[in-house]
């Protein structure tokens, strides 16, 4: 049947009807007074979502572009940086640091295992000369469905005194309680196609005063990605370059929807969906990649040698998209996204279809065990 495709992946995520309608409006001039009012509303609501008084800058990029901007605006060639790597995206940030000529030290963990906070403490405390300029952390590592202990790592960064913390919150912002001001996070990047519930194309960066001080001494060349330009434009409810006007219409509407739901309810919903998905997987005798106490609220990774068979049947027979594994986990895991515009019904439907898929593949489990477990977790 046409138009029944359902995204149960960690991005892009489903888009609400009201947002789709907003995306389809006729564009207006991006230097007009009417558009300036939209930017003003968006900026205020972005601060609400980020739980910060800092400026939150909107860039015409994906989450990767936001993270790159978050590094090259506050660091310099040759700077020593620590990068947490326990998945695809942590590794990507390390690669970016290396491309830009930074002294990059990886603190690693097996994919699906949270980063060891004590390794960061040891490195930072040993740096008596204050040579470490930044610590780069992926909060929710969606390639493995694991949530890293950002709060604890940031405490060690703050105790260091000199280093910045640069955070990939691409799939945790809007899905997990991330109080930027309370935790005193310096640079936090995210992307539109995740918890924001709009299509890809916008990246967001929250920047605090300490990071802006580092901006003044950063030596990387930049033009389009120069956050100073965005800061000046932001103060005038404008943009330094032509923005994706219709995406901004969608963002305005999505943020209004999120405000009506409320932050506490948004976080509670994502946790409830995570718990239901994980309970169902356990009841079906499937192996979870990440432990319960470090589970991402964006996506659940499930290990099985039938991963691609499961994804294929779910897509072809039920028109439900599940994510696969990346790099060395390709074909070894599948991932169920429960991020953004996802409801209890979406998860229950996905688990029901997953059970039918497993039956077709000859997997042995108690009838309706997954559905029962998910339903119990959603009560």
Write structural notes for this entry.
This protein has 379 residues and is of the alpha/beta class. The chain has 2 domains: 123 residues, Aspartate Aminotransferase, domain 1; 243 residues, 3-Layer(aba) Sandwich (Aspartate Aminotransferase, domain 2). The chain is built from 14 helices and 14 strands. It has a 7-stranded mixed beta sheet, with helices on both faces. A 5-stranded mixed beta sheet has the order 1-13-14-12-11, sandwiched between helices. The protein has a two-stranded antiparallel sheet with strand order 6-7. Strand 6 and strand 7 form a beta hairpin. Helix 5 packs parallel to helix 6. The longest helix has 21 residues. The chain is globular, with a radius of gyration of 21 Å. The model has no long low-confidence stretch (mean pLDDT 98).
* CATH level 3 topology of the largest domain: Aspartate Aminotransferase, domain 2
Give the neighbour order of strands across the main sheet: 2-10-9-8-5-3-4
> Cα-atom Rg, whole angstroms?
21 Å
The total number of structural domains is: 2
User: What is the CATH C level class of the largest domain, in words?
Assistant: Alpha Beta
- SS content category: alpha/beta
> Count of DSSP helices?
14
CATH superfamily of the largest domain: Type I PLP-dependent aspartate aminotransferase-like (Major domain)
Into which percent range does the helicity of residues fall? 40-55%
- Main sheet makeup: 7 strands, mixed
In total, the number of strands is 14
Strand content: 15-25%
Please tell me the CATH architecture of the largest domain by its name: 3-Layer(aba) Sandwich
> N-to-C terminal Cα separation, in Å?
32 Å
């Amino acid at each position: 049947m046409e138009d029944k495709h359902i995204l149960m992946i960690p991005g892009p995520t489903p888009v609400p009807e009201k947002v789709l309608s907003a995306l389809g409006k006729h564009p207006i001039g991006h230097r007009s007074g009417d558009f300036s009012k939209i930017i003003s509303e968006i900026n205020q609501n972005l601060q609400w979502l980020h739980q910060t008084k800092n400026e939150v800058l909107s860039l015409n990029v994906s989450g990767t572009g936001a993270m790159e901007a978050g590094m090259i605006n506050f660091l310099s060639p040759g700077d020593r940086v620590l990068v947490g790597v326990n998945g695809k995206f942590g590794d990507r940030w390390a690669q970016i640091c290396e491309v830009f000529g930074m002294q990059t030290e990886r603190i690693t963990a097996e994919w699906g295992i949270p980063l060891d906070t004590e390794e960061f403490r040891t490195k930072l405390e040993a740096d008596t000369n204050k040579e470490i300029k930044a610590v780069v952390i992926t909060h929710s590592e969606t390639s493995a469905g694991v949530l890293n202990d950002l709060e604890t790592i940031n405490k060690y960064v703050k105790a260091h005194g000199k280093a910045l913390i640069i955070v990939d919150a691409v799939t945790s912002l809007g899905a997990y309680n991330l109080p930027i001001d309370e935790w005193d996070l310096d640079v936090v990047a995210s992307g539109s196609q995740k918890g924001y519930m709009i299509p890809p194309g916008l990246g967001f960066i929250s920047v605090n005063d300490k990071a802006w001080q580092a901006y003044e001494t950063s030596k990387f060349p930049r033009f389009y990605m120069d956050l100073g330009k965005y800061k000046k434009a932001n103060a005038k409810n404008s943009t330094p370059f032509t923005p994706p006007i219709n995406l901004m219409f969608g963002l305005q509407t999505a943020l209004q929807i999120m405000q009506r739901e409320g932050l506490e309810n948004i976080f509670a919903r994502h946790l409830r969906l995570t718990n239901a998905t994980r309970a169902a997987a356990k009841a079906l005798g499937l192996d979870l990649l990440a432990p319960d106490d470090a589970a991402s609220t964006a996506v659940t990774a499930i290990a099985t040698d039938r991963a691609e068979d499961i994804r294929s049947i779910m897509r072809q027979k039920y028109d439900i998209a599940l994510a696969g594994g990346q790099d060395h986990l390709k074909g070894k895991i599948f991932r169920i996204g429960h991020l953004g515009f996802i409801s209890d019904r979406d998860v229950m439907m996905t688990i029901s279809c997953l059970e039918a898929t497993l039956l077709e593949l000859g997997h042995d489990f108690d009838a309706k065990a997954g559905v029962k477990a998910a339903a119990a977790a959603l009560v």
